[in-house]
Amino acid sequence: MPKFCANLSMLFTEVPLLERPLAAKLAGFDAIEVLFPYDENAAELGVAIARAGLPLALINCPPPNYTDPDGPRGFAAVPAEQQRFQRAFRRAHRYAGALGAEFLHVMSGVAEGADARQVFVENLTWAAAFAPKQKITIEPINTDDMPGYFLNDFDLAMEILDEVDAPNVYLQFDAYHAAKITGDVLGTWEKVRARVAHIQVGSVPDRHEPEGGGFDYPAFFKALDKQKYKGWVSGEYRPRGRTEDNLSWIS
Hints:
37% helix
């Protein structure tokens, strides 16, 4: 079976964030990710992660007010926001270093057109050079969940990776978003898997536990084993009840 990771921004929310790393460890996960850890004291969160003994797989490059429902979902592709992006990336990179995050996911934000594409490429190129030892990911996200999100297509993501052409920038593959964007998770995976460094999963179409519904996750996990995928597979979903009540998908 793959190495399973728990998204602590969505799982184990029955307890405070500082208690979730240990909860994930006791539940049988191999790693954790935290989308936006910036409201927590980095030292305290680092201690909680160290006590659990789990690696931190990923954090997101922050819009500072992501918790605001009307706030931006990133701005790496937003023209005229390049200085803001650089400030945000520097802050995220400090957190990633303090917490030992393997991947830093850069969110494109809401934008469109050739200018947005150029800005996204420029910002990723700058980030890759600024933090050459930091692994960076980009992730296509469907526009039902995030209307207007610039990076909403896997072909576009692959083209941008080619343009940036940096050894530390990778594709982040979310099977839930792939289902919403293309309707063909396995076909999309086969097209892009050579560039993928991190996977996220959730049921289709409701984004609950990755089982049942419209996609055969056990078959996908077997395919990952056969292909010798070495990265994390993170549960990024909304549990139907208490997180611990249904973790059969990692068994």
